[in-house]
C-alpha cells in the first residue's frame, strides 16, 4: 500500500502539509467531512498542489516533517 506526503493550498492562500495512505479519500475529508483537519475545515476549499508517494508510512511521515520545517517559499518551489 502506498503512502503519500502532500501539500494543500487553502482558500485563504495558506499551505497545509500532511500524510496519508489514501490521497483521494483524504482530500475529500479535508474539503467536506467533519474528519478533516481543523486547520483546513475553516479554510475550505482546499486544492492538492503537491504529493509524493512512499512505500512505508514512516517514510511519508519523515518527509511530511521535513516539508513542514521549510519556509513557505521553499514549499512553493515544489509546485510553482
TrEMBL record:
Residues 1-77 form the GIY-YIG domain. It comes from the Bacteria. Belongs to the UPF0213 family. This is GIY-YIG domain-containing protein.
Amino acid at each position: 500500500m502506498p503512502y503519500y506526503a502532500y501539500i494543500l493550498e487553502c482558500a485563504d492562500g495558506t499551505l497545509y502539509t500532511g500524510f496519508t495512505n489514501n490521497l483521494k479519500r483524504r482530500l475529500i475529508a479535508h474539503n467536506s467531512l467533519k474528519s478533516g483537519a481543523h486547520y483546513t475545515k475553516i479554510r475550505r476549499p482546499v486544492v492538492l498542489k503537491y504529493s509524493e508517494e512512499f512505500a512505508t508510512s514512516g517514510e511519508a511521515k519523515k518527509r511530511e516533517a521535513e516539508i513542514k520545517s521549510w519556509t513557505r517559499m521553499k514549499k512553493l518551489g515544489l509546485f510553482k
